[in-house]
UniProtKB/TrEMBL annotation:
Organism per entry: Hansschlegelia zhihuaiae
Residues passing through the membrane, by range: none
InterPro entries per UniProt: BUG, Bug_dom1
Listed Pfam families: TctC (PF03401)
Annotated signal sequence range: 1-22
SUPFAM superfamilies registered for this protein in UniProt: Periplasmic binding protein-like II (SSF53850)
Repressor among keywords: no
Keyword annotations of the record: Signal
Protein name, per record: Tripartite tricarboxylate transporter substrate binding protein BugD
Length: 324
């Protein structure tokens, strides 16, 4: 009798209290982890979205930066967190590329998370220090080929967007540059502006204001059409390098086992945030746009992650770049 009562109580608790908890969620601040240093492009995207989602959810979303190992440390932290909706991850394309780049990960890329939705796809820009000699992309490519051992290329570490863009660029021109890894694009950009390194490829969210302010020089965008916030910067194809196209997509994840009700609530909040006029405007200022409602869903993010793993695996394997 006691056992039957206990079993019934457990079922009622799981159904009644569980659903009530999901309905009331969130009742305290939520942490959204950015697996890169503060001040970088993914950090910028996260803080804009988190602020708007906080207003909708009625609780503050606190952004926490846990950089290192190409974003895998922060992703691993979220994968091991309690699946209660209070620890989230906003990650970019390296969520997919790390699956090939790293021989061993502290999480299961496809199976270790619940998917909330896509956020945005950000164009990349090939840039250099403001006083760098080449005037346009063709001259830049010629210069790199003639001085490959002298030209320094900054990136935010293995697996970072800037690293992937550089891999693709060097593959296209069949020339390697001397790479200088940093612990994030924030410090990398600081050194580029300070003329400590020569060149970099990074997201418009991190380069647009620097380009407009004349602090760095832009050679091309990695898009099929010109970026509205940088109308004077040609696409790589226009500048003479067809096929050099890459965008950095961002998505929000929760630990595996987070209730479907909480995931649904987070996805709905994300969709509202991406329509927030302030978010739309700030994204436009940074050279990007929010995704549609159809893409800000668990299904769209899972499909994107799966397809991007398949897309980048052969590129990474051909480059022979791996990390432990």
């Amino acid at each position: 009798m006691l056992k039957s009562f206990a079993a019934a109580a457990a079922v009622l608790a799981a159904i009644g209290f569980g659903s009530a908890s999901a309905a009331d969620y969130p009742t305290r601040p939520v942490t959204m982890i950015v697996p890169f240093a503060a001040g970088g492009p993914t950090d910028t995207v996260t803080r804009l979205v988190a602020e708007s989602m906080s207003k909708d959810l009625g609780q503050q979303i606190v952004v926490e930066n846990i950089g290192g190992a190409g974003g895998t440390l922060g992703a691993g932290r979220v994968a091991k967190s309690e699946p209660d909706g209070y620890t989230l991850l906003l990650h970019h394309i390296s969520m997919a590329t790390s699956a090939t780049l790293y021989r061993k990960l502290p999480y299961d890329t496809l199976g270790g998370f619940e998917y909330v939705g896509l956020v945005t796809e950000v164009p990349m820009t090939l840039v250099a220090r403001s006083d760098f000699e080449p005037k346009d992309l063709k001259a830049f490519i010629d210069y790199v080929k003639a001085n490959k051992d002298k030209v320094t290329y900054a990136n935010a570490g293995v697996g970072a967007a800037s690293h992937l863009c550089g891999l693709l660029f060097m593959s296209k021109i069949e020339t390697q540059m001397t790479t200088v890894p940093y612990k994030g694009t924030g410090p990398a950009m600081t050194d580029l502006v300070g003329k400590q390194v020569d060149t970099m490829c990074d997201q418009t969210t991190n380069t647009t204001n620097q380009i407009k302010g004349g602090k760095i020089k832009a050679y091309a965008t990695t898009t099929t059409t010109r970026v509205s916030s940088l109308p004077d910067v040609p696409t790589a194809a226009e500048a003479g390098l067809p096929g050099f196209e890459v965008s950095i997509w961002h998505g929000i994840y929760a630990p595996k086992g987070t209730s479907p009700e909480i995931v649904k609530k987070l996805s709905a909040s994300l969709q509202k945030a991406l329509k927030d006029p302030l978010v739309v405007k700030r994204f436009a200022d940074l050279g990007t746009t929010p995704v549609s409602d159809a893409d800000a869903t668990p299904e769209a993010l899972k499909a994107k992650l799966t397809s991007e793993i398949d897309r980048w695996a052969p590129v990474i394997k051909a480059a022979g770049v791996y990390a432990d």
